[in-house]
From TrEMBL:
The keyword ATP-binding applies. GO terms for molecular function: ATP binding. This is ABC transporter ATP-binding protein. Keywords: Amino-acid transport, ATP-binding, Nucleotide-binding, Transport.
Length: 240
């Protein structure tokens, strides 16, 4: 279980992006974080992923705990050891490497046999990647690059996966494929914290919906409640 308690995040100059946010993220399920521009969604992911120092930002109050361990101050590489994977802001794939080599890099440190098995699982999950195994990743479409980024991040089946707007800039069909893959990943026991503009699509694969406004959690409820309640969907899904 990922537990966020009373989290306050500040950027240099004192700008506060989150004001005492508390949130429980259920294990093996997708939780979607919704909210307008500047609401604090990305800052929340950065805090969980240990990336705040890269932005000279800091946690002023509160904590992030993973399965009971306080991981608030841990750098990203130590979080990786505890089972965290993230696909954030830009896909960070190696455009000069082939699709297969990008995946192999994701399996670095694993025994060779396990890497081969994991790459095979990735191809089963994303058949389009198998078809382009020997193509340089830079030649993939945006959607295929997103698939590759997700496949690489989940090669070792993380405990917790953070995703920032995975369907951004993709066609509706590709967005749906990515959503289906995320649902499959969660079904394998991975806890997913997802920030997504395409609220309906994200909620369709989510257990929990969290709405953030101005750095505060304004709603945390079952995703179906948000989808089914006319008043809530009008307020938070903008009739989308
Ligand atoms: P968007 O959907 O536009 O990305 P968001 O909900 O992800 O928005 P954040 O990016 O977390 O929101 O921003 C929350 C607040 O923190 C905003 O007021 C923003 O200006 C501020 N902020 C974000 N990144 C920085 C930064 N690197 N330096 C200073 N302030 C920042």
């Amino acid at each position: 279980m990922l537990e966020i308690t009373d989290l306050t995040v500040t950027y240099p100059g004192g700008a506060e992006a989150l004001h005492g946010v508390s949130l429980s993220v259920p294990t093996g399920r997708v939780t979607t974080v919704l909210g307008g521009n500047g609401a604090g969604k990305t800052s929340l992911l950065r805090a969980v992923g240990g990336l705040l120092p890269q932005y000279r930002a800091s946690v002023r109050t509160g904590s992030v705990s993973l399965d009971g361990e306080d991981v608030t101050a841990l750098p990203p590489w130590q979080l990786v050891r505890r089972g965290l994977a993230q696909v954030l802001e830009g896909r960070h794939i190696f455009t000069d490497l082939t699709v297969r080599d990008n995946l192999v890099v994701g399996g670095q440190g694993l025994p060779r046999r396990e890497v081969a098995d994991a790459v095979e699982r990735a191809y089963e999950q994303f058949p389009a990647l198998r078809d382009k195994a020997t193509t340089s990743a830079g030649y993939l479409s945006g959607g295929e690059q997103q698939m590759l980024a997700i496949a690489r991040a989940t090669l070792r089946l993380p405990r917790l996966l953070l995703l920032d707007e995975p369907s951004l800039g993709l066609s509706p069909l590709m967005g749906e494929r990515i959503a289906t893959a995320i649902a499959d990943i969660a079904a394998q026991g991975v806890t997913v914290l997802l920030v997504e503009q395409n609220a309906r699509l994200a909620l369709s694969i989510s257990e929990q919906a969290v709405v953030i406004a101005n750095g505060n959690v304004v709603t945390a409820c079952p995703a179906v409640d948000l989808l089914d309640d006319d008043k809530l969907s009008a307020a938070y899904l903008g009739g989308a």
